[in-house]
Amino acid sequence: MSSVNKLLPHYTYEDWVLWEGKWELIDGIPYAMSPSPMPRHQRIAAELRYEFTSALKEKNAPHVSLMIR
């Protein structure tokens, strides 16, 4: 067993069911989960995407891929 495995706590399903909040348990390691987007936020994002795409098609503009660095 590596020294990293000795330092990381290992949780079980029985531990997980007692926790409050949104957590995901992967291979015994807990990860705090972000809240899901609200329906209003998703609707606005979809409408913006539609408007931007329509404007680009109307102007015959090439599609641009944004790179996240």
Mind explaining what this structure looks like?
This protein has 69 residues and is α+β, with helices and mostly antiparallel strands. The chain has three helices and two strands, in the order ααββα. The protein has one domain (3-58). 42% of the residues lie in helices and 12% in strands. A two-stranded antiparallel ribbon has the order 1-2. The longest helix is centred in the C-terminal third of the chain and has 20 residues, at 39-58. It is elongated, with a radius of gyration of 21 Å. The chain starts with a helix and ends in an 11-residue tail after the last helix.
Secondary-structure blueprint of this entry?
Blueprint: H1 3-7, H2 13-16, E1 23-26, E2 29-32, H3 39-58
Antiparallel strand pairs: 1-2
In short:
The chain is α+β, with helices and mostly antiparallel strands and 69 residues long. The chain has helices spanning 3-7, 13-16, 39-58, and strands at residues 23-26, 29-32.
> Secondary-structure element sequence?
HHEEH
Q: Any low-confidence stretches, pLDDT <50, length ≥5?
A: 65-69
Taking Cα atoms only, what radius of gyration do you get, to the nearest Å?
21 Å
Number of strands: 2
Calculate the terminal CA-CA distance, rounded to whole Å: 35 Å
Strand order of the largest sheet: 1-2
Largest sheet features: 2 strands, antiparallel
Q: List the domain count as a whole number.
A: 1
Helix content: 40-55%
Briefly note the structural class of the backbone: alpha+beta
- Quick check: average pLDDT? 80
Silhouette:
elongated
Question: What's the total helix number?
Answer: 3
Beta-strand content estimate: 5-15%
